[in-house]
Amino acid sequence: MITLDSLTKSYDDHLVVDGVSLELPSAGVTSIIGPNGAGKSTLLSMVSRLLGVDAGTVDLDGLDVHRAPSREVARRLAILRQDSHTPARITVRELVELGRHPHSKGRLTPACHAAVDAALARCDLADLDRRGLHELSGGQRQRAYVAMVLAQDTRYLLLDEPLNSLDLVHATALMQLLRTLSDEHGTSVVLVLHDINYASVHSDRIIAMRDGRVVRDGTPEEVITEEALSDVYGAPFRVHHLDGDRIAAYYR
Ligand SMILES: Nc1ncnc2c1ncn2[C@@H]1O[C@H](COP(=O)(O)OP(=O)(O)OP(=O)(O)O)[C@@H](O)[C@H]1O
Ligand SMILES: [Mg+2]
């Protein structure tokens, strides 16, 4: 379990994460939704130690994330940032191999190669592994970053808008893959999504943020309602029932 206790962050005088306390489970798929600027990425960045906290703590299965050695954190938790980029010109395979760094100390073992191959295959990149990252389409590149995070092979997977640039088929495939990792490998997946219908259909739990706070936290049945979504986003959503799922719409 990851326990967030009173996490707080300000930029200048602007409070962007306002004393958030939460327990993220050690299994299952948890989606974080909310409008632009709600503080979702800032929260995830603090949980994964990409960003320091102004106040509060993050406990990762007994490890104080902001005090523990970074390798210890990286063996348990992987994060896909919203704005991934690598400066050097590297191939897809080389990028995914970087995900093994916390395990390999720079020397890839047979287990590392197997994990890299599996991650490439899962992200439909097996045929593109020798390509330079700069030679890919936006969606292919996004899948390469997801593969890098999967290759890290951690109990906790934090993904900030992993569906960015993906077509509907690859987006659905990725959500199905995350569901499978959770169901069959016991991975805890925590992801930020703007497409609330993917959150609705594939999550066990949905956390909604607005103005740096958690304003809803519950099952899709509890959070994907016209009342809750209208409150979270300040817009009049409609919620339809389709094949047993709740599908939200706001187009006009
Ligand atoms: N480095 C920074 N300096 C100043 N303000 C920042 C910085 N990073 C984020 N902010 C501000 O903090 C607030 C929360 O940003 P954050 O990136 O966490 O939002 P978000 O919920 O992830 O939004 P989005 O859906 O657009 O990704 C925003 O108002 C943003 O402008
Ligand atoms: Mg964000």
Indicate the proportion of strand residues: 25-35%
Q: Label the CATH architecture.
A: 3-Layer(aba) Sandwich
- Looking at the structure, the CATH topology is Rossmann fold
Question: How many discrete structural domains?
Answer: 1
Please trace the helix and strand order, writing H or E for each element: EEEHEEHEHHHHEHEHEEHHEE
Number of strands: 12
| Rg estimate, integer Å | 18 Å
Strand order of the largest sheet: 6-7-8-3-9-10
How would a crystallographer describe the biggest sheet? Answer: 6 strands, mixed
Query: Uncertain segments of ≥5 residues (pLDDT<50)?
Result: none
Could you please describe the fold and organization of this structure?
There is one protein chain. This protein is of the alpha/beta class. The protein has a single domain, classed as Rossmann fold (3-Layer(aba) Sandwich), CATH 3.40.50.300. 36% of the residues lie in helices and 28% in strands. The chain has ten helices and twelve strands. Strands 6-7-8-3-9-10 form a six-stranded mixed β-sheet, with helices on both faces. Strands 2-1-4-5 form a four-stranded antiparallel β-sheet, with helices on one face. A two-stranded antiparallel sheet has the order 11-12. Helix 3 (92-98) runs parallel beside helix 6 (138-151). The longest helix has 18 residues, at 168-185. The protein is globular and about 50 Å long. The model has no long low-confidence stretch (mean pLDDT 95). Adenosine-5'-triphosphate is lined by residues 11, 16, 34, 36-42, 82. This is ATP-binding cassette domain-containing protein. It is found in: Cell membrane. One of its GO terms (molecular function) is ATP hydrolysis activity.
